[in-house]
Amino acid sequence: MKVNVEEISGVKKKVNIEIPEDQVQKEIDSFYAELKQKAKIKGFRPGKVPREILERYFKDYAKGEVLQRLIQDSYPKALSEATLSPVSQPVFDPQDLESGKPFRYSAIVEIKPDTKVDGYLGLNLEGKKEEVTDEEVQGRLGNLQNLHAQLKTVTESRAVRSGDYVILDYEASRDGRPVEEGKGIDVPVEVGGGRFIPGIEEKLIGMKVDDATDIEVAFPEDYGYKKWAGKALTFHVKIKEMKEKILPALDDEFAKDLGDYESLEALKTRLRQDIGKEKERGLDRQLKDQIVDQLLKTNPIEIPSGLVEEQTHALVTDTKARLASQGMALKDLDVTEEKLHGDYGEMAQKQVRTFLILEKIAAQEGIAVSEEEVEGRLKEISERGQQKFDAVKRYYEKNGLIPEVKGGILSEKTLSFLLEKANVKYL
Asked: What kind and span of H or E run contains 168?
C-alpha cells in the first residue's frame, strides 16, 4: 500500500492511498466466494452459481461492497503510516474499482494544529482583592432568615403591603379576547419580590382580600416570553388570600437550628469564611480569564472546523438539556435550533482555540491528567447529582465522555500552572 499526504492547510490534509492490484483482486475473489454461498438464483442450487452469473447479477453491488471493505481495512493503517490523528470524520473520494488494477482513493481529514506556543510564562495580570464586609455578612444572614420565615394568614382586614404574600387568580386578555396561556389559578406571589409578571406586583399594594381589578401591562419587545413580547395585555386579577412573613429572631437558637453552630457569632464567622472563599474563587476566575485573553491574542492559531462544529453542537445540546430541566423547550423562547447554532458559533471557536492552546502548553510543560484525577472528578459529578458513582462512570464511558472530562481537568491544571507563574498586581 502506498500512502501520500498533501497539505491543504495547517489543519487540513489530503491522504492519498493506493492499494495494489493483487490485494484488490484478493478482496474481490473473497467477496464473490462469500456471495456464492448465499446467492439464490433461479435454476442454480445454493453454492453452485457460476462466478460469471454472479458478476452479471451483482456486479455493481459487489463493487460497492468491496470498495467499502478496502477502505475500512486500509484507512486506519494509512493514518498510522502517515502518523496522523484526525479530529473529524474523513471525506472520502474513491476512484473507480476495477479488477486487475490498483485501487486509489483519497481522504480529506482535519488534525490539530502543530504549532509551538510561546510567551505564556510570566504573564502580567491585575486583580482586586476584596475584603468581606459586615454588610455582606448581615445580608447573607438576612437571606437565611428569609429562607426560614413562616407565612401566617392575615385575618384582619387590611391592605396589601410590600413583602406580603398573596394568593390570586388572573386572566389575561387582548382587545377583550382571552390570551393563550394567560390564565392562572391560586398563584402565590411575593409582593415586591420581582418574580411575577412585571407591572402587576406594585398594583397589588393597597388592595384587600376579595378585591379584583384590571391591570394594563405593556410588554417590551425583548420580553422573555415571546408570545407576549411587544404586546399590551389586560390582566383581570383577584386576590383570594393574604399571608405575611414572620421572620425568626436572629439569636443563638436560630444558629443552632441551622446546624452545628454554638452561637449566632459562630454562624456569622462561617458566613464570613464562605463569602471570603467565593471572593477568592471569583478573583481566580478573573485572573484566569485574563490569561486566556492574552493567550488568544498572542497565539492566533488555525483551528479545525470539525472541532468547532462539534463544540457548537455540545453547547446547543447543553442549552436544550437545561431548558428541559425547567420544563421548557426552544420553541417557548421562540428560538430555532438553527439560530441557536449560529449564535453559539463564535463562543465555540473561542473555546476550541483556548483548549488547543492550553493542550499544547500542557504537552510542552509535561502536565498530564491521571486516572485517579478522572475518577475523582466523576465522584464529584455523582455526588452533585446524588447518583451512584458506578452508574455515572458507566454512563460517561458508554457515551465516550471520558476524554471530555479529562480535557476539562487538563485545562484547569494548565491554567493553574500559568497563574502560579504569572506576575499578579493586586489593586
From this structure: strand 165-174
Q: How many CB atoms lie within 10 A of CB 68?
A: 12
Q: In this structure, what C-alpha cell is assigned to residue 220? A: 417590551
> Any bridge partners for residue 21, and if so which?
none
pTM for the full predicted model: 0.77
Residue 240: CATH number of its domain: 3.10.50.40
| Domain assignment of residue 296, given as a range | 263-426
Q: How many structural domains is the chain composed of?
A: 3
Q: What are the grid coordinates assigned to 248, written together?
A: 425568626
Asked whether 191 and 203 are in contact (CB, 8 A), the reply is no
C-alpha 340/C-alpha 39 separation (Å) is 50
Q: Tell me which of 212, 246, 280 is where a domain ends.
A: 246
Count how many Cα atoms sit within 13 Å of the Cα of residue 339 in the half-sphere of its side chain: 6
215 neighbors 116 (Cβ within 8 angstroms): no
Strand partners, 94: 105
Question: Do 89 and 174 fall into the same domain?
Answer: no
Per residue in 200-210, pLDDT (tens digit) is 999 999 999 99
Same domain, 286 and 406: yes
Nearest Cα neighbor of 144 from 12, 293, 251, 284 is 251
Asked whether residue 134 is assigned to any structural domain, the reply reads no
Q: What is the pLDDT of residues 271-318, one digit of tens each?
A: 999 999 999 999 999 999 999 999 999 999 999 999 999 999 989 988
251 CB contacts (<8 Å, ≥6 apart)? 264
My answer on whether 271 and 239 are in the same domain is no
